[in-house]
């Protein structure tokens, strides 16, 4: 699910990859529109840094309410350590966010773990991705 202009691009890529029977793309706003129900996996990529901790917990709760039991959630973002200083590239992007984003920030994996526990998810693992981003993976309790 993404904003309409992005969803259209995603649909074209999914179709071109031959994964149309396994991947659905929905246009909408994750903060206000109904989320797809009973899926077993959700990817929230580059969303967490746009919002405050409370707004992120609202999003995580909305996803949990829509998800099937045992569903997996992947949060790809600029996660840092508890000091918010490492990895350096992720920490540096916080300055950019301070200028361009109203409520967001770069958050630590520990903060994500706390949000997940508060919203019905169990933290599983944190893994690096290419570049300054990494992914936090959780499962719906």
Describe, in plain words, how this protein is organized in 3D.
The chain has 141 residues and is an alpha+beta fold. The chain contains four helices and four strands. It folds into two domains: 1-33, no CATH class; 38-140, Vaccinia Virus protein VP39 (Rossmann fold, 3-Layer(aba) Sandwich), CATH 3.40.50. 36% of the residues lie in helices and 18% in strands. The protein has a four-stranded mixed sheet with strand order 1-2-4-3. Helix 2 (53-66) links the parallel strand 1 and strand 2 (72-77). Helix 2 (53-66) crosses helix 4. It is globular and about 40 Å long. It starts with a helix and ends with a strand.
How many helical elements?
4
Structural class per helix/strand content? Answer: alpha+beta
Give the strand content: 15-25%
| Number of strand elements | 4
Q: Which shape, going by the Cα principal axes?
A: globular
> What's the domain count?
2
- Evaluate the radius of gyration: 15 Å
**Low-confidence segments:** none
């Amino acid at each position: 699910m993404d904003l309409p202009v992005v969803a259209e691009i995603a649909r074209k890529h999914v179709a071109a990859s031959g994964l149309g029977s396994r991947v659905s793309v929905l246009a909408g706003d994750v903060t206000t529109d109904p989320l797809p129900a009973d899926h077993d996996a959700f990817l929230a990529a580059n969303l967490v840094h746009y919002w405050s901790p409370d707004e992120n917990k609202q999003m995580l709760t909305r996803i949990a309410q829509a998800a099937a039991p045992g569903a997996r959630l992947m949060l790809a973002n600029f996660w840092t350590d508890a000091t918010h200083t490492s990895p350096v590239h992720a920490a540096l992007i916080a300055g950019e966010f301070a200028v361009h984003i109203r409520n967001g920030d770069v958050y630590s994996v520990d903060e994500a773990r706390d949000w997940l526990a508060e919203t019905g998810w169990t933290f599983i693992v944190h893994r690096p991705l290419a570049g300054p981003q990494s992914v936090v993976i959780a499962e719906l309790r």
